[in-house]
Model the fold of this input.
Amino acid sequence: MTESGVIPAQAGISRLRRYCKSPQRRTAVCAGITAALALLASNAAALELRGHAKLQATSTNLPVDSLLQDFSDDPMNDAGFDLRLKLKNRAGGWSWRADYQLLARQGDRLELQQKTSLTGFGNAALPEDDLRLFDLTHRISDQDDHVMTHRLDRLYLSHTTDKTVFNFGRQAVSWGNGLFYNPVDFFNPFDPAAIDTEYKTGDDMLYSQYLLNSGDDLQAVWVARRDDDADVEHDRSSLAFKYHGFSQQAEFDLLLAEHYDDRILALGGAVDVAEAIWRSDIVLTDTRAETFTSAILNWSYSWIAWNKNLSASIEYYRNGFGIDDADYGPLALVDNPELAQRLQRGELFTLGKNYLAAAASIELAPLWMLTTTLFHNLDDDSLLLQIFSRHDLQQDLQLLVALNLPRGDNGSEFGGIDSIISGRPLAIDESFFMQLAWYF
Done:
């Protein structure tokens, strides 16, 4: 590694090619890597290889009456590893990007998720490509209490001019004005309580952007997906158009989309009022059988006190697909298929209808930020308090630490939803998360 942190291009290419020569590793991942390297090697002098390695540890306590006690150890201890190698190349208006990931998970919560459907709403422990257009993921190891996967999370070709951008391949896009909850961001959004939000999972898409002379821009996205029979189907894909504009001190967005055969109309914006920023989105989803309305409204403000940088924010979220009577019993999702589908796809992470979230951050030192966040389900009065520290120990070494404290009555979302056994909720107690990341 050079002093600048850039691995010489030819050395990085040689290492990846040697890795992929093994017959056991001739998977779709290596095929993608080989294709990308062949296309990029012609301009290898401009090629850079960067990345990170992250070690993670989580410990989660279980209440004594939780049904999860019958299926897992208490506390549930898990460990994880995330290696990302980012390969980039630019030549004139053309550029490529390829991100290789090696992911591993091991522990009690993973085993619980692998064996039962009691947690995670059926979402995979690690990303899968079964329903994506391209299969760029290979499961190296798959056991009850540990899994290992390698994949390409980014692999796309880009062309840019003064007014246009065209990207094709695996990439990520984020839309919407939500700070905690974001109903407009329906392409692999983050869990509102997620700690590490550095990279969204990529999707196979065609993305374009056109910049108008006024500074406004028009964006378009087409995401192709497969059904359970591996066929590319219209009712599994997404087509979206977004107009982003400016008006004096305000910005506004207008979005039209067809997503999994649903029609979506969204209107949002942001405005500066008294040195604070107000943002909002309203989203109408027409499932052809019913129309659902979701919305967010938030406020954020930053200031300096005690020679420290501080910030605060608060957000109201209405989940149009949520349950409004605080009854999340075993049949709740059966009676709410639209909610169940979005939980299964990883587009939603909440069961209720109305939420309030608030956060306050203080910069303890130039490289150390402490944040306290509160998530409040207004329908069942349950809470999740999160205390989160981000500390850059040195230039390329970062430590994340978080404590999650859920509170609520049995049967509530954060207190533990009811199971099929009376008095035995699906509840978890406080959890501790730590991640050490090295960037190179």
User: Anything to note?
Assistant: Residues 9-21 form the longest helix (13 residues).
